[in-house]
Amino acid sequence: MVATPSPQRVSELEREARAALAASADEAALERWRTATLGRSGTLTQLLRSLGTLDATARREVGAAANTLKNALEAALEARREQLRAAALAADVHAGTLDVTLPGRPRRRGALHPVTQTLREILAAFTRMGFDTVEGPEVELDEYNFERLRIPADHPARDMWDTFWLDEGEGAARLLLRTHTSPMQIRYMDAHQPPIRIAVPGRCYRYEATDATHEWMMQQVELLVVDEGVSMADLKGTLQEFARALFGPERRVMMRNSYFPFVEPGVELAVDCFVCDGPPRPDCSVCRGSGWIEIMGAGMVHPEMIARAGYDAQRYTGFAAGMGVERIAMLKYGVDDIRHFYANDLRFLRQF
Ligand code: FA5
Description:
alpha+beta, 2 domains, 39% helix
């Protein structure tokens, strides 16, 4: 049975409710208080519902008082909740379970992959020498990867690059994963006129067994320079300046004869082995006892390619080079097995 609503009843209810609120000491008690007072069948809600039994004047008076009380009690509940929270925090601090003087936990910062760092250094060195950076497709046509580099279908030089063929196209239109970045020599010459001075970074793929210096996926940077009067001396000077910029003056570089169908003459650039670091050791897995690590192939652009690009082969000459970024990263950081780079082992990667 609910008491008849009256101003006295409102005051009485307020006294009781405030006392009960003051006695509620945790979140659960606050929730019980809210249900008992302001909830659907709470005391104040019932009082408001029974206002209809009063005459108009009394209803207005008691109604106003009850609504004011409702707002006041809601505010009092929030204030009590805040008070309890502050008290709990103070107790925690006092008990020492929360040390607000502790320094924040630092977030571990990510870093660029060592091969990416090396690639950026290589490109920066060539940018300083006036090269533009351009990129080409990883899925390439036989035409650009082989044919137009003077490696026709029956040419034994195809054996130098074990190829991942894609099951589409035939002959020169057959698709493959490029085995080197050299196809961009052709693509670029087709679309531009000399003078040309470009560096072409990119991933290359070879279907071959892996070992300490061979991966099936690796990155290369191709160089192509075509202009009037470009000579072997320019090639040598550019590569020596590059080796000095990346490895410092103390690492020795060596150029020796090599063969690539798209250059004439062809050379290979090697850097002395950082593992042996002196007289070569016969059991060294990195240089295989030779004392040298090959980092790139290079040479003078074959005159036939200059002519096929539509340039005057009497007037223009050029040089090209293709280097392995992982090999260079190995030399820079003294990594003795190329397979570490892509093994996704954070213990290895965090060292750089
Ligand atoms: C080429 O790929 C030629 N396109 C390079 C070239 C360009 C010659 C322009 C002349 C003119 P080669 O197969 O030697 O050549 O590879 C070039 C470099 O890529 C090597 O010196 C080596 O540093 C790197 N390389 C080759 N195969 C691998 C491999 N499996 N894993 C890691 N690095 C490799």
